[in-house]
Amino acid sequence: MKNLIDIRDMSVEEIDQLIHTAIDIIENKEKYSKKCKGKTLATLFFEPSTRTRLSFEAAMFELGGNVLGFHDAGTSSTAKGESVSDTIRTVCCYSDIIAMRHPKEGAPLVASQKASVPIINAGDGGHNHPTQTLTDLLTIKMEKNSFNNMTVGFCGDLKFGRTVHSLINALMRYENLHFVLISPQELRIPEYLRSEMEANKNITFEEVSDLNDAISKLDILYMTRVQRERFFNEADYIRLKDSYNLTKKTLLNAKEDLKILHPLPRVNEISAEVDDDPRACYFKQTLYGKYIRMALIMKLLKIE
Ligand code: CP
């Protein structure tokens, strides 16, 4: 594997190995503190980010490497009209690996075709977010110790939520999973993904709109925000933005061993009162994102 553009670039065995490495990093941090000495990660963020960019940067620092890049394309020569291809060719002269976020679906793939160093898709439009999926899988491994035999609820903006698309793609390769897809009618999963799910033998799924009706059967609840930046008009966003609000009251009917995940940032879909519930895992999930990205950087740089 030279690049990570889509979670399906990795086999189930490669994902298992990466998770194994991430857990070893968690348990033996010092062992990894110089693994990337002399190597440089470039973070090119053409779209806003807190967790993804900073966890990549923290990951490279904890591996003893260096970081450069930009977090606002408006301060780069993109603002003068430079193409993604030319930007990538330039940054390849200064770095050993690039993590890139872009609002256009497919931009990291185009970049990988021009690059001489590994490219990591750190989110492309409403399409994919494979390193969030690796984060989500490490969280599920740490919290449930299995990817099989579970009912997983995905709630919120399933149309534009790229983290949902990538995680469904990843989980469809495990066994005996039931997905409950909870969203307003207008924000249901894209048709291409529904067709893939219908053809998949490992999973079953249902589409519903009421979180309260679904909550009692879930082993994992993956909450997402309504993706304002992907809407074509503000009126639709305002109408749909508060479709869900997970509260202590909603959780009265939930399983004791439910695990609540959210890629963050959240807006109103999880009340702050839920943060102290032992079932809330979303801030642990944020921390796991750093460790899985450390493992990924090492893998793509072919560092043992
Ligand atoms: N989960 C995630 O992608 O968060 P950021 O947008 O803050 O990077």
Describe this structure in words.
With 304 residues, the chain is α/β, with parallel strands linked by helices. Helices cover 36% and strands 16% of the residues. It has helices at 12-27, 51-62, 84-92, 107-114, 130-144, 162-171, 191-199, 211-214, 234-240, 282-300, and strands at residues 40-45, 66-70, 97-102, 119-124, 150-155, 177-182, 203-208, 220-223, 259-261. A five-stranded parallel sheet has the order 7-6-5-8-9, covered by helices on one side. Strand 5, helix 6 and strand 6 form a beta-alpha-beta unit. Helix 1 (12-27) packs across helix 5 and helix 5 packs across helix 10. It is globular and about 55 Å long. It binds phosphoric acid mono(formamide)ester.
Give the termini distance in whole angstroms.
15 Å
Rg calculated over all Cα atoms? 19 Å
The count of DSSP E runs of length 2 or more, i.e. the number of strands, is: 9
Give the biggest sheet.
5 strands, parallel
Q: What best-fitting shape do the alpha-carbon axes yield? A: globular
Small ligands present = phosphoric acid mono(formamide)ester
Please give the count of helices: 10
Mean pLDDT figure: 96
- Kindly state the percentage of residues in helix: 25-40%
Sheet-strand content, in percent, reads: 15-25%
Q: Please mark out the parts with pLDDT under 50 across 5 or more consecutive residues, or reply none.
A: none
SS content category: alpha/beta
The helix-strand sequence is: HEHEHEHEHEHEHEHEHEH
- Trace the largest sheet across and list its strands: 7-6-5-8-9
